[in-house]
Design goal:
The protein is an alpha+beta fold and 294 residues long. The chain has helices at residues 15-36, 44-51, 61-76, 86-89, 102-108, 141-155, 246-259, 261-269, and strands at 6-10, 57-58, 117-120, 125-128, 161-165, 168-172, 180-185, 193-199, 203-208, 213-216, 219-222, 236-243, 275-280, 285-287. Helix 1 (15-36) runs antiparallel to helix 6 (141-155) and helix 7 (246-259) packs antiparallel against helix 8 (261-269). The two termini are 35 Å apart.
Amino acid sequence: MMGTELSVRLWHEDPEQGRALVEQFFAEAQRINLLMSTYIEDSEISAINRDAADRPVTAGDELFRIIQRSLDISTLTRGAFDITYESVGQHYDFRARARPDAATVAENLPLIDYQMVDLNPARSTVKFGAQGMRINLGGIAKGYVVERGIDILRVAGVRHAVVSAGGDSRLLGDRRGQPWMVGIRDPRVDGEVAMTVPLQNEAISTSGDYERYFDEDGVRYHHIISPSTGNPVTGVHSATVIGPDAVMTDALSTSVFVMGVDLGLRLIATLPDYESIVIDDEGRIFFSDGLMQP
């Protein structure tokens, strides 16, 4: 679902209730997917992409809040996180190994500009500033899904659980007396981990150039698009962010990836509750100041 694998693990004294909570999470994930997927023609976000250049489009409260939060994070990251990347990103098809030519990128690059998304909180409407603009919540929606999953489990009294959606995980409590051991994938060796991080009651998100990609003539074309160039970001293989909120860790891992090692870790240094681990394109590993290098 959502272009990735979703999973939930929890402990519960009542097996039937535990299984019911698992199904409740998957139902919630499907509900959010139907709201925010650009691949579903009648989703709310598809309606916005279809009509918001012509007129203000009313969004439901939930979707409006996520778009608003996305734009706030764009301001925080000075545009490194930008949901309007889809204006160029829509022209990639990684399964078909298709990418836009330079002329298409140049034509659509001016449409990557979060400041041209006009929100009206009083009416919950979204309006685009130019024809051809599109938004995509792929850099924040999975974090939102796992955070919602943990909310469901916490309200039900669960104290130990992990909910994951691809590279995004949210941990509830510890692993019954031990920390959760979360592996950060080796970005160039399938099935291997670069390191394992002990965590409890935290969120952890990793953005990598190995999630959706194809290689052509020695160049890797992947789904993390630079808002400033319209091309896949280079210089970093993966960026991991750890913190208390999966929505933020999801968006920040993309932001750090786009900004690169130096600027990305400088950003994280300004956010006391968040830490980061970055693997650059030479395989070197960098840690934010709050993490002790193993």
